[in-house]
Amino acid sequence: MQPIRSVLAATDFSAHADAAVRRAAQLATSLGASLHVLHVVDDVRLGLLRGLIPNVADVQARVLEKANGLMTKATAAIEGPCESRVEIGPLRPAIFSAARDHDLLVLGAHGAHRARAALIGSTAERMLLRSERPMLVVKGKPAGPYQRVVVPCEDAEPARRALEIALRVAPGARVTLVHAFEVEFEGMLRRSAVSSERIAQLRSDGAQRAQAWLESLTQGLEAAEAVGIIVERGPASSVVLDLARRVDADLIVMGKQGRSVAGEIFLGSVTRHVLAESRCDVLVVPASRDSN
Q: Which parts of the chain are coiled coil (predicted)?
């Protein structure tokens, strides 16, 4: 995976976007990366204003003046170099276009009281489906570098990518790999009068295979000693969220399957639930560009 040399934070100047800009600044400093902050004036909304106010040039000038003032305020507390800009365009396409020139995209999520109702279908989630860059959704004000990171592991290639970037963005943090498993056809086995002892053995075998697989993911990594492993039985999203709460995780890093239909199903079944329900930041790592 290529190093992170450039971080882009997209802001709408809300409180959660302000937290995203702060986290982006912290990551840029720790990674030795350049920091860029972008605000896109939605051309659809600007068009509505143009229809209501006859002086088109004056409307656009005032909107840009206001946005530039808010940008100055949003970036005032950033220490170190920061390139900021305001542009007019279609919101998501403009952010996608800008993100192609950077290695990490950072966005704010809605506050915790709005997450379940508003995050599903929001700009952040819809962008996750198509993003070609690692995308960090920030949920709260950063209190410092990440300290406790959870990496859900579903398949080898996405899990390895997620682990590598987790170690990169959170050096020195305690990273925990977690795999959720269930015995295939366990309900059918019970109904077929398979003994409890046999089912327990199948569970144990499954856990041992998962443990060995997770251990193989850390091979060749310099910081492998900082990686813990947990294997638990149960639905993936529930296992991930329960573990994140137990260890008081401040970051969950998830590898996306790809930009295929399967990738969208994975986002819908696991990442979407984790993104909406988690209390901490969520970083989603897309498939490498040469794997699609």
A: none
